Amino acid sequence: MGSDTKATSQMDIRELPAFFRLLADALEKGGDGEFVGSDEFRKFKISGKNEFGQVTVKVKFKSAGECEAAEEAEECDECRASGTLKYKHLKKRMKISFRLIFKMIHEGQMPPAEAVESFLADSDLMIGYPGYGDEYYAQYAKVCATFKAAFESGDLARMGEAVDAIAHEKSRCHAKYD
């Protein structure tokens, strides 16, 4: 799915369950027709409007995509590796991964390794940007290392303590620099 996909369907309200079954099949097996590429989404939105028993359903999928445009540079691993990533894009990406990690750990679930690896790699990159809280970087790196060790051990309690420490360090820095 190289670009965004939008599907709008008008149907009788009784057809709605079948529509959602088609969508579920597309997500599991890869879609075709109006759901082509729906299994490769980064973000999706479903809305529906019932008017006199006729339902208009809109489904929008935003693709994971590649580093195709300047706005998407924050998603590009090449940009991360070369250090050409803008600081605000880095922070945005870190916010997304950390929010997921923090929430899952505090709900007693193991976060996806991909999110943890992305967050830790971004954290390493972030502390290389001068002028954005340099005096906090050493302590931040230390709590990130503690989190990494806790994640690798699979100890959710230690991970919880570590993400709380990361949140604390982030708050200290952001109080001065945001």
Structural write-up:
There is one protein chain. This protein is α+β, with helices and mostly antiparallel strands. It has two domains: 5-63, no CATH class; 70-177, Four Helix Bundle (Hemerythrin (Met), subunit A). The protein has six helices and three strands; from the N terminus they run E-H-E-E-H-H-H-H-H. The protein has a three-stranded antiparallel beta sheet with strand order 1-3-2, with no helix packed on it. Strand 2 and strand 3 (54-63) form a beta hairpin. Helix 3 (87-106) crosses helix 4 (113-126) and helix 5 (134-153) runs antiparallel to helix 6 (156-177).
Describe what is shown at a glance.
With 178 residues, the chain is of the alpha+beta class. 54% of the residues lie in helices and 16% in strands.
What is the secondary structure topology, with strand pairs?
Elements: E1 5-12, H1 16-29, E2 41-51, E3 54-63, H2 77-82, H3 87-106, H4 113-126, H5 134-153, H6 156-177
Antiparallel strand pairs: 1-3, 2-3
Helix pairs in contact: 3-4, 3-6, 4-5, 5-6
CATH class placement of the largest domain: Mainly Alpha
Instruction: Give the count of helical stretches.
Output: 6
State the domain count: 2
Q: Strand order of the main beta sheet, please?
A: 1-3-2
**Which percent range describes the beta-strand content?**
15-25%
Q: Mean pLDDT, rounded to whole units?
A: 83
Proportion of helical residues: 40-55%
Instruction: Tell me the series of helices and strands, N- to C-terminal.
Output: EHEEHHHHH
Fill in the CATH topology of the largest domain.
Four Helix Bundle (Hemerythrin (Met), subunit A)
Largest sheet: 3 strands, antiparallel
Q: What oligomerization state is this entry in? A: single chain
Total strands: 3
Low-confidence stretches: 66-75
The CATH architecture assignment of the largest domain turns out to be Up-down Bundle
Rg, Cα atoms, Å: 21 Å
* Protein structure class: alpha+beta
Backbone shape: elongated
Q: How far apart, in Å, are the first and last alpha carbons?
A: 36 Å
